[in-house]
C-alpha cells in the first residue's frame, strides 16, 4: 500500500514538473517569436532608411547640379 502511495506521489510530482517545463518551453517560444518579429521590424526599418538615404542623395545631387547651372548662367549673363 505504501508503495502505491509513494508511486502516486511520484507521478503527481512528475506531472507537475512536466507542466512547469511546458510553461518554460512556451515562454521560450514566445521569446523566440518576439525576437523574430523584432528582427523583421529591423529589416523593414533598414529598408526605409536606405530609401530615405537614396532620396537625400538624389536631392543633394540635384541641388549641386542646379547650383552649377546657376553659376554658369550667371557667368554667361555677366559676359
TrEMBL record:
Keyword Coiled coil part of the UniProt annotation: yes
Tagged with keyword Coiled coil: yes
UniProt keyword annotations, A-Z: Coiled coil
Positions in coiled-coil regions: 4-76
Protein name stated in the entry: DNA repair protein
Source species: Streptococcus oralis
Phylogenetic placement of the source organism: Bacteria, Bacillati, Bacillota, Bacilli, Lactobacillales
Amino acid at each position: 500500500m505504501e508503495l502505491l502511495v509513494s508511486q502516486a506521489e511520484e507521478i503527481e510530482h512528475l506531472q507537475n514538473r512536466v507542466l512547469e517545463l511546458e510553461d518554460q518551453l512556451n515562454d521560450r517560444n514566445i521569446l523566440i517569436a518576439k525576437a523574430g518579429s523584432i528582427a523583421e521590424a529591423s529589416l523593414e526599418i533598414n529598408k526605409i532608411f536606405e530609401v530615405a538615404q537614396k532620396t537625400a542623395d538624389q536631392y543633394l545631387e540635384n541641388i549641386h547640379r542646379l547650383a552649377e547651372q546657376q553659376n554658369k548662367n550667371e557667368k554667361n549673363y555677366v559676359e
